[in-house]
Every structure is written in structure tokens, then in C-alpha cells.
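Run log, item B.
One chain of 372 residues. Sequence copied directly from the ordering sheet:
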Amino acid sequence: MIYLDSAATSLQKPAAVRYAVLDAMAELSSPGRGGYETAMNAAETVLDCRLALADLFCMREPERVVFTSSATHALNIAIGSLAGPGDRVVISGYEHNAVWRPLHALRADIRVAASPLFDQDAAVEAFRRLLPGAKAAVCCHVSNVFGYILPVERIAALCREQGVPLIVDASQSAGCVGLDFDRLGCAFAAMPGHKGLLGPQGTGVLLCRDENVQPLLFGGTGSESESPDMPPYLPDRLEPGTHNVPGIAGLLAGVRWVAGRTPHELLHHERGLMELFSRLLEASPRIRQFRARDSGTQAGVLSVSIGGVDCEEAAARLGAEGVAVRAGLHCAPLAHRTAGTLETGTVRFSFSPFNTADEIRSAAAKVLALAG
């Protein structure tokens, strides 16, 4: 199988990730719940992962790195901490349902800073118009549909000027696009562990600016056990229950692998494969590609539509040919509405550190044969 669906999950992972998960299941127990060897080793693994993430994302205070079960879980904590019913929240036109649905459930006043695909200047201006009076803002770093790298640094600067806290959804950027959290100055950044960080599914991370954050779940933490309230400090305040120690151990191995190669190097590899794939697809006039003119505004994700072939049918036929891709709306109808593809969806190809040029040539040949 040629796996080109890494924007959904990193099926291909370093061998060290698998070994770390298996070792943790056999050798690590519950951190913070005992002073015996397996509990202490588990606590050390959790701390090591927190430290590795803080280092990767340039955070001076590793205790503000919070483990969650997913990026969706992390985003729900961040959104619930900043917004409530009737509060105006500005979001980009490329947000995932993990942003849109929590805001809708809160009955927030959602304002969409819509702007043309791959136009960073227009995105900044759209936020500039809508930010005054907003309670919070949310912006994805990279669109999961189109690989569009949004200008989060410039948007964060606007938010600081207006005194509006910003949540960055780094689901598609963490591990493959550099993110300096302290320099960015956003309130929160949320990410999964299983995509660009190459960890297991069931892991997520929330980076927090300060401790003024509301828990989504309540329960035991191994600390402040005499109090009916959650501990007032991070990370305990947001980490009730037993940690996913095998998942965190695997995430630690993934983060170390990414840090050893650097997000810059990984982005260069994935973008290079995307550009090779795009050049090969240019042989067919029936294939519409959603490509940036400036390659610096697109990560290793390429959406296409194939004239005369429904996107779901195209993905199914490619799957039967051994090419794994995703089709449809990709849990991001807002992004498709903004880009004008809501009625048709797209076929999405997303590349990983483990894909090769030979795989890309083979996959392109199958797509060209499908296009006819």
C-alpha cells in the first residue's frame, strides 16, 4: 500500500514508537500514584515527554504542557476557557469541526474571517476587520484540507494589539512546521500526538500561556487529594484520571525522532514530494489542483478534483489500486465553503517523512489513469 493519508493519522511511524508503547505496557504503571519502581519510572517517562515537547515548541515552563486524549479534547478545553454563550469569537475560514462545533455548542457568536485560499495578506486583513470587540480568536496553523499555511504569527500580533486571546490549532503543523509558542504569544496551542509528532492515536497536547484555564473533566490527579476542587496549578488542573502512559511513551519516542530531524527538514521532504506529485498530475487537464503559487504557503498536503469522477468514487478506486487517500469534506466543511468546494469535496493526498519519490510516481500514474 502507498499511504498518502498522513493528514488523518501517521500510520507509518518510527520503530522506536512501537517499541516504546509495548515496553510501557509491560514495565510502567501509574504515575503519581506510588513510590515504587514502575510508578516512578512512569512518572519519569511522562515528565520526559513534557520536557521534550516544551523544548520542541520553545516553552520555558514545561508544566504548561498538558496531555489530552486528542487535539479535539485540547481545543474543547481552550475554547471553553475563553468563550461562552453570546461571546464573539473570530475564526479563520479554514477551521476544522473540532473548532466550529464546540463554539456552536457554546452558542458563541461565531464570526468567520473568510479569505481566498493561499492569500495570507487577505487572511490578515479579514482578522483585522473582525477582531475589535471579540472575546477570543481561533486560527488553524495549517489547513487540513489544502495544506494552506496561515499567517499565524501576523494574526497573533493583531490579537495582541487588540487584547484578544488566540487559540492556534496546530493539528496539521505540529512536527512538520516550526512553532515557537513563547514567541507567538497565543493563549493556547492544541495538537494531536498521532499526526506530525508520529505518536500513537489517543494522545494530544495543549500548550497553555497561563493557568487561567477551566477543566473539562474532573477527578483524581494524585495531588491535592483532600480538596473537592481540581488543583489550581498546571498540569494537574487539566489532567484528571490515569495518564495514557503507553501513549505518552510512544509520543516521547515520536517527538524525539522529529526533534532529531527537525520540523524544517521534515517539511522540506514532504513539500518536495507534494511538488513532485503536482508536477506529474499536470499531464492531465482533467485534474484540478489546489496549489499555492508560493510554495512557502503550502505544507505537504494536496487536494484535487478529477473532472467527471466523484471524489468518493475516486478515493475508493485508488484504494482498490493500493493508494490510500481521503475524500469528501475532511471534517472541515467551513474550509470547503471558503474555497468553493463544499458541493463536490476533494480528494486529499497528504505526505509523510516515510514516503518516497518512487511511491509518488507510482501513485501519480494511477491518478492519471483514473482521470483518463
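Observations after the first pass:
- The chain has two domains: 2-11+262-371, 15-261.
- The chain is about 40% helix and 15% strand.
Flagged for discussion on Thursday.
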